[in-house]
Amino acid sequence: MNDRIIFEDVSKFYGEVLGVNRISLSIPPGITTLVGPNGSGKTTIMNLMTGLVQPSNGRISVLGLKPSDQMELFSILGYCTQFDFFPRGLTGWQFVLDGLMLHGMEEAMAVDLAQQAIERVQLGDAAYRKIAGYSKGMRQKIRLAQAIAHHPRVLVLDEPLNGLDPMARAESIALFEELSRQGMHVLISSHILDEVDRISDRVILITGGYLIAEGNIHQVRQEVHEKPMQVLIRCDRPEVLASKMFAINHCVEARLHADGKGVFLRTADIDRFYSMLNGIAADGLVKIDAVAPADDDANAIYEYLIGKDGSPS
Amino acid sequence: MTEMQLGDHARKIAKQPWGLWWTQAQRLTRIELRRNLFSWKATWIYCLAFIPTAIIFIHLLVDSHPGFQMTEDTNILAGIIQLYYIRLGVFFGCLGIFSRLIRGEMIERSLHFYLLSPVRREVLLLAKFAAGSISAVFLFGSAVAADFALMYVGFGAAGRDYIFDGPGMGQLQAYLLIIVLACFGYGAVFLLLSMMFRNPTPAAMLVLGWETINPVLPSLLQKISVASYLRHLMPVTVGAEGIFALLTVETEAVSGWAATTGLLGLIVIVLIYSCYRIRKLEIRYSTE
Questions:
Q1: CB pairs below 8 Å between A and B: how many?
Q2: Phi, psi of A66, rounded to the nearest 5 degrees
Q3: Where are the domains of chain A?
Q4: Closest Cα to residue A62, out of A107, A6, A134?
Q5: pLDDT tens-digit profile of A67-101?
Q6: Distances (CA, A) of A300 to A258, A303, A307, B186
Q7: Cα(B195)–Cα(B103) distance, integer angstroms
Q8: Which one of A28, A73, A309, B55 is most buried, counting C-beta atoms within 10 A?
Q9: ipTM more than 0.85?
Q10: What is the full DSSP assignment across B54-102?
Q11: What's the distance, Cα to Cα, between the start and end of chain A in Å?
Q12: Which residues make Cβ contacts (< 8 Å) with residue B87, sequence separation at least 6?
C-alpha cells in the first residue's frame, strides 16, 4: 500500500456546474491545508476522496485504496465533515459508539475507543447529553471525536475550527500536530489561515475548481514572482539599512517597524537581496539581529494568488 | 461460463467477509430500530394501523354477537384486511416508514454518517430494509392479530371453537403471512422510490393507481404488482359491489406457493436494483 493520496486528472461536474477541473495531486503524510474561497472546490475534493461524490473523470486513490473500497477505506480514514447535522435523538456518546460498532469490533473495545476519543477532544462531561442541546463548538468536537475514534491513518477535516473558541482552537491545532507527528495524513480546509498556517507542511491553493498552487508554503511563496517578497530585518539602524538597500537597487519598498528597531523591505529578487544584506552586515555599517520573511504565510499567498474577494489580484 | 470459472466465482463469494457483514447488518438494524420504531413522528402510522382495531373494539362493546353473525364478521374481517390494510394501511404505513430510511436521512442531512462508515452500501441498504420491515410487520402484524382476536372474542365459546377447532387459526396465519409479504413488498418498492425521487409521494400515488387497475390488466402485467400476489393468498374471498368491485376482481387462479414465490422474486429484483442505486448515490444535500 503506498502512502500517498493521489488525484489523477480528476474533474467533477454537478450537471453543468463545475466542481473541480483536472486536479492532479500527490499528497504525502503530514498536514496539508486546502486553501480557497467559498465554492472553490475544497469540500468537493474531500467528498471525492471519501466517495461521497464520484468523479466525472480521473482517478483517485487514498493510500492505494479506491474511494469505492468502502470497508477498507473507512477503516483507515476518518472524515469530519462540515455538515452540522446529526442522526436524531443521539447523545454524544451514542454517536461515537455507534460509529465504532459499525466497524464490527467487540463492544468492550468500541467502548474503550469511544472513551479515549471523547476524552481527547475534552468533551467528557457532555458526552451523555443529547447532541441537540450542544453548542456549535461542542458539535464540532463530537464530530472530531467520531472521526479520530478508530485511530485512522488519514484524517480529513472540513473547516474543523469553525465554531470553536480560541482555547478549543489551540487544543484542536495541538491535536492535529500530534496526529501529524504520528505519521498521519491530516488534510484540513479552513478559512482561519493564520492558525492552520503555523502547522501546515504544505498548502493546496484552489479557486473556481482549479488548482492554483501546491507544495511547501515557502516554496509556493517564492514561485509568486510578480509579488515582491517582504522581509523583516531587526537591526540597530533600520533607516541606514533601508537607504543602502535602495541604493543597490534590490529593494522596491521599505517601511520602518513601529518600534523603530526594524525595517520591512520588499524585494523582487530574494536571492540577490540576501547576498547584498550579507555584504552590508559584513561591512559593519548595521548590526543585524534577525531576518525573517514577512509574507510567506498562507494568508499572504492566498491574497496574492486568489485575492481577498476570491478573484486573483 | 465454464466449470472452472464457476468454481472461481464460488470461491470468490465464499472468501467475502460474510461474518463481518452480518455483524454490521445486525448493528445497523438495531440502531435503526432504536431510532425509528418508537418515534413521535411515526404516530400517524400507529393510528393507521390501529384504526380498524378501535372500530372492531367499539363493535365488540356495542353490538350483540349471535352465533349466526360469525360468517358475516369473518367476511367483514377479510374485507378489512384486503380493502383497508393491503390497499391503504400497509401501503401508506410502508410509504411513511421506508421513505424515511434513505430520503428522510438525506432531508435531515445525516445520511453521510452511514456512508462514511466501513460498511458496504449494499449492507447498509439491506439493514435499513430489515429495520423498516421489522417495524412495519410488528406494527401491522400486531394490529391484525388484535383485530382478529377482538372480532371473535365477543362470540364466546363459539368464537374459541372457530379459532382453535375450526378454520380460524389458519385464516389468522394467512392474514399474518399477507401482512408480512405486503410490508416486504411495499417496503422494497418505497425504499427504491425514495432513492429515485426527492419526493416519493407522487410516485407512490402512481403505484397506488397501478395497483388499483392491475386486476383488469393482461396477466403478464398483473405480475408486476404486490396486491395481485396477495389477493391469491386471501383465505376468505371478499365479494364486493360498486367501486369496491374493481379492487376485488377475480383474476386467473394462482396457487399460494406460486403467489408467495412470485412476490418474493419481485422483492428480490427491486432490492437488487436498489443496491445498484445506493452504490451510485451521491451526497449533495444542497440539492435536497
A1: 73
A2: -85, 150
A3: 5-215, 223-300
A4: A6
A5: 999 999 999 999 999 888 888 888 999 999 999 99
A6: 20, 5, 9, 59
A7: 6
A8: A73
A9: no
A10: HHHHHHHHHS---GGGHHHHHHHHHHIIIIIIIIIIHHHHHHHHHHIII
A11: 41
A12: B208, B211, B212, B227, B247
Q: Which residues of A touch B106 (CB under 8 A)?
A: none
Within 8 A of A70 by CB-CB distance, chain B residues are: 115, 118-121
Q: What's the predicted TM-score (pTM) here?
A: 0.82
Burial (Cβ within 10 Å: 0-12, 13-18, ≥19) of residue A181: exposed
Give the C-alpha separation, A196 to A75, whole Å: 26
Residue A55 at interface with chain B, using a CB cutoff of 8 Å:
no
For residue A71, the tally of other CB atoms under 10 A from its CB is: 18
> Does residue B36 sit within a domain?
no
Widest CA span of chain A, in angstroms?
73
Residue type at A96? V
**What is the tally of structural domains in chain B?**
1
| Coil, helix or strand at residue B149 | helix
* B195, part of any domain: yes
Whether A99 sits inside 8 A of B117 (CB atoms) is yes
Contact with chain B for residue A17, Cβ under 8 A: no
Residues in A touching B109 (Cβ below 8 Å): 83, 85
Nearest residue on chain A to B109, alpha-carbon basis? A85
Query: Is B117's CB within 8 Å of A74's CB?
Result: yes
Q: What is the pLDDT of residues A219-263, one digit of tens each?
A: 776 666 667 778 888 888 888 888 888 877 667 788 888 888 888
Q: Is A223-300 in the same CATH topology as A5-215?
A: no
Range(s) of the domain holding residue B51: 41-281
Q: Is A103 on the interface with B (CB under 8 A)?
A: yes
Residue A121: which of A71, A176, A163, A83 has the closest Cα?
A176
What would the grid cell of residue A209 be? Answer: 475548481
How far does CA A194 lie from the centroid of its chain?
A: 10
Residue with cell string 388484535: B146
Which of the listed CATH numbers 3.40.50.300, 1.10.10.10, 3.40.605.10, 3.40.309.10 matches domain A5-215?
3.40.50.300
Q: Is residue B35 part of a domain?
A: no
* Fold of the CATH domain A223-300: Alpha-Beta Plaits (3.30.70)
Written as nine digits, the cell of A136 is: 456549535
